[in-house]
Amino acid sequence: MTVVRLSELLGQPGPSTFLRGVVAGGRYANAYLFLGAAGVGKGTAALAFARALLCETRNGPKAQGGLFDPAAPSAPPDAPADDACGVCEACRRSAQLTHPDLKFLFPVSGEEKDLDKTVAETQQALREDPFFVFNYEKAASIRLSLTRELLRELAYRPYEAERRVVVVRDADRMREDQYSALLKSIEEPGASTVWVLTTARASRLPATIPSRCQRVRFAPLPEPAIRQFLEQRAGVGNSDARLLAALSGGSLARALTLRDGTPLKERDRALALLEPALRGDPASLWLAVRDVTNFGRAGREVLRRMVEFNQLWLRDLLRARYGAPREALVNRDRETEIRRQAELTGPAEIRRRLMVLEEMLRTIEGNVTPELAMFSALSRLGGERVAGDPWPPHPTARWDY
Ligand SMILES: [Zn+2]
């Protein structure tokens, strides 16, 4: 597990400063809610906060009345007052997720009988893979059985530290009765538990939750921060890193997930889709669309990415049109083509195409069959609707997106 400290949070100076202030002051709210888009570092920050809170440099042996082995390695003299020291026994164990006063809940899917195994495997992967990204199935949830077990434990004093920390990742994936139990615990006076909830979908939480929590907002990560991280920490080549950062929408998790594919190849495939559209060849277009969307459940996500590749390309055309230098282009490796296309296409036309794609992204989220949405939008990119009879014949065919 890559142990990130509060002082090292990527591209989140606000939360980093705030949380270190809390740690330095030693006065904790009963609950914190980390808000922000997926993949911007809320989960990493939550665990970093938990480690800082549990670090023995501040809450250690003295407070426990000498329970600890005096021969145990002590914190270094220059240990920060506002962060985890990173070397004490508590830090070591919380980094391994084995500290008895650190509870970590996250959504899982699969059968109840495999629950322990699933949780253990996920934790193991998180410890071993420095770029581990939580990816949930739609139905993944924070399991009731685990919450119950946790709440039973909360009735007792913490084992070693002054307080225990419960980190709940993606807390919006709970059931109504879990929230009521959680609220009861948050509101308990003199509680020795600090809750840290994270969510990318705050609107799915009952309003009572945010109102009882100290809220901490996480912004989308700046593109250069993601690019730099990919290049320097994840060993991604320059062209790929630039493209991934541009596609990431400020989410490191997204960039890391995309990295596992072959982004440049995927982009070329996405751009190739445009050719039959611009040629006005609906039959080839339909075949091409069927080809890229033939990915079962992942279809929508693939589709979204295809659209986004095309958006990046069109934005490059606009940039080139206005004389932007090579460094400003995302698809720098295809600069000659960008310059040539930019000369042939007016800015108004480029903007129109961008708008069609924007609309298409919205449609993909809706209930319309994804390949139809794509086909229709791409046909319009070519400048006109497919005339005459509905094409392709399909009972849910709709053209008025
Ligand atoms: Zn420590």
Summarize the structure.
With about 400 residues, the chain is of the alpha/beta class. The protein has 18 helices and 5 strands. The chain folds into 2 domains: about 5-220, Rossmann fold, CATH 3.40.50.300; about 260-380, Zinc Finger, Delta Prime, domain 3 (Up-down Bundle).
Which descriptors would you attach to this protein?
18 helices; binds zinc ion; 2 domains; 401 residues; elongated; 6% strand; alpha/beta; Zinc Finger, Delta Prime, domain 3
Structure commentary:
Strands 2-3-4-1-5 form a five-stranded parallel β-sheet, with helices on both faces. It is of the alpha/beta class. The protein has two domains: 6-219, Rossmann fold; 262-381, Zinc Finger, Delta Prime, domain 3, CATH 1.20.272. It has helices spanning 13-25, 42-54, 56-59, 89-95, 115-128, 144-154, 176-187, 208-212, 223-232, 238-247, 252-259, 263-272, 274-279, 282-293, 299-321, 335-344, 347-365, 370-381, and strands at residues 31-35, 102-105, 164-168, 193-199, 214-217. The longest helix is centred in the C-terminal third of the chain and has 23 residues, at 299-321. It has 18 helices and five strands. Strand 3 (164-168), helix 7 (176-187) and strand 4 (193-199) form a beta-alpha-beta unit. Helix 2 (42-54) runs antiparallel to helix 4 (89-95). The chain is elongated, with a radius of gyration of 25 Å. The structure holds zinc ion.
